[in-house]
Amino acid sequence: MIGARHKRTKPMSEMNVVPYIDVMLVLLIIFMVTAPMMMQGIDVDVPQVTSGPLDRDENLEYVVVAVNASGGIFVERGEEAPQAMAIAEVGQYVANVLLAQPGLQVYIRGDNRIDYGTVVAVMASLQNAGVGSVGLITEAPDET
Q: Domains plus CATH for the chain?
């Protein structure tokens, strides 16, 4: 084989994506396991009614004002921890947030056992703060 030429092999031009898929699947499993643990909020027994869900833009931030069974008022904004506030403080807080984000959506989550007047007082405070519309959070009744 003195006169034979050695054939050169071309470099492989294909990319191996299997390690990337493995990493993606591991990250997906991690996020699926940890996402339920990241949910924060005040434990509120909301009324159960039959109604359709509100159309909400997932890209917009929102504020939830929660009223628990003992009449405590808490403001939840995005991923922040809930803050206990008085009714007057809620209006001032939301007014300040609305100045920075005019398209902010505001929701009230009231406990089923709370006095109706407390929820109305919170709604009035939000209206005085400049909130045009307030959504009420409820749960669908249990299907048995």
A: 62-136 (3.30.420.270)
